[in-house]
């Protein structure tokens, strides 16, 4: 059982990492990208599958596409949700391409992606890798898995807290790399100081509760919080535990003021102009 934590790129108010757990190979991958000029952030996590090395090939493909689209600057040209849709569909096409010629293996992957830009955050996901959104100690919501277990919850046949132990948990209804283009699910929120986002693979959320993830995401030292959370998930998973990957992102006052600064200055300027006009008319 591997408890070694691999850290992803470090950036302000974001921390990420992964561990192999009880598996022989690492099929989870994540990437954190930051544009210093605009303070935009793109966080992407993928959980590959497909047998005989195809899982590693698949998650790496999602990350490669993410990096390429970011470097091309497509996120500047398209609205956030459209960019994330493009990312997911492009990653799907890349996995289809990587699967050509393979025998006995098919590259498939989940994906969950978060784009924080300006005053808004938008996200997209396919499969059972999740995004949680917290405000202080309160969970504002999470993505719903595209799995048979989630379908059971919707039908009232299974409690949400029991999904991680259900026999059908790993039966996915959507994913990247299948014969048909994926149906991508999207979310959008206005940023508030004190908000935190958690992106994780099923190896994490099966072992850590929503409350635990929220407490970790509020810690002052995010890097330490990621490491401790991953270690706890690995220990609870045991010798047969899944790969685990996790990203924490927090919205502080500095980032919020940067996002709102231009708008606030425009308001103040308008008020000043209105005041000057009023004085001149007296």
General description of the model:
- It is a single chain.
- The chain is α+β, with helices and mostly antiparallel strands.
- It has helices at residues 54-72, 74-77, 80-99, 148-154, 202-205, 210-217, 222-237, 253-281; strands spanning 6-7, 14-19, 28-35, 40-49, 108-109, 111-117, 120-126, 130-135, 138-142, 185-190, 195-200, 244-250.
- A 6-stranded antiparallel sheet has the order 1-2-12-11-8-9.
- A hairpin with a 2-residue loop joins strand 8 and strand 9.
- It is globular, with a radius of gyration of 20 Å.
Which blocks of ≥5 consecutive residues have pLDDT under 50?
none
- Percent range for β-strand residues: 25-35%
Helix content: 25-40%
What is the end-to-end distance?
Answer: 79 Å
Mean pLDDT: 90
**Number of helix segments?**
8
- Give the H and E element order: EEEEHHHEEEEEHEEHHHEH
Strand order of the largest sheet: 1-2-12-11-8-9
Structural class of the helix and strand makeup? alpha+beta
Shape designation: globular
Q: What's the Cα radius of gyration?
A: 20 Å
Number of strands: 12
Largest sheet: 6 strands, antiparallel
Please specify the SSE layout and strand pairing.
Blueprint: E1 6-7, E2 14-19, E3 28-35, E4 40-49, H1 54-72, H2 74-77, H3 80-99, E5 108-109, E6 111-117, E7 120-126, E8 130-135, E9 138-142, H4 148-154, E10 185-190, E11 195-200, H5 202-205, H6 210-217, H7 222-237, E12 244-250, H8 253-281
């Amino acid at each position: 059982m591997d408890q070694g934590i691999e850290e992803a790129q470090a950036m302000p108010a974001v921390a990420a990492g992964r561990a192999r757990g009880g598996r022989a190979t690492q099929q989870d991958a994540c990437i954190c990208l930051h544009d210093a000029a605009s303070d935009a952030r793109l966080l992407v996590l993928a959980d590959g599958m497909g047998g005989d090395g195809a899982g590693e090939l698949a998650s790496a493909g999602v990350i490669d596409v993410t990096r390429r689209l970011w470097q091309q600057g497509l996120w500047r040209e398209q609205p956030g949700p459209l960019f994330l849709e493009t990312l997911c569909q492009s990653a799907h096409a890349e996995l289809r391409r990587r699967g050509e010629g393979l025998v006995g293996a098919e590259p498939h992957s989940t994906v969950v992606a978060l784009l924080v830009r300006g005053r808004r955050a938008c996200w997209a996901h396919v499969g059972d890798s999740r995004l949680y959104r917290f405000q202080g100690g309160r969970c504002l919501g999470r993505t719903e898995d595209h799995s048979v277990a989630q379908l059971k919850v919707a039908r009232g046949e299974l409690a949400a807290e029991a999904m991680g132990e259900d026999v059908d948990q790993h039966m996915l209804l959507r994913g990247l790399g299948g014969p048909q283009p994926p149906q991508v699910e999207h979310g959008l929120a206005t940023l508030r100081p004190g908000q935190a986002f958690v992106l994780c693979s099923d190896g994490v959320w099966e072992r850590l509760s929503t409350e635990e993830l929220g407490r970790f995401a509020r810690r002052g030292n995010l890097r330490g919080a990621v490491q401790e959370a991953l270690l706890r998930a690995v220990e609870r998973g045991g010798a047969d535990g899944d790969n685990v990957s996790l990203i924490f992102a927090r919205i502080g006052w500095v980032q919020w003021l940067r996002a709102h600064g231009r708008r606030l200055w425009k308001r103040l300027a308008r008020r000043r102009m209105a005041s000057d006009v009023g004085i001149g008319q007296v």
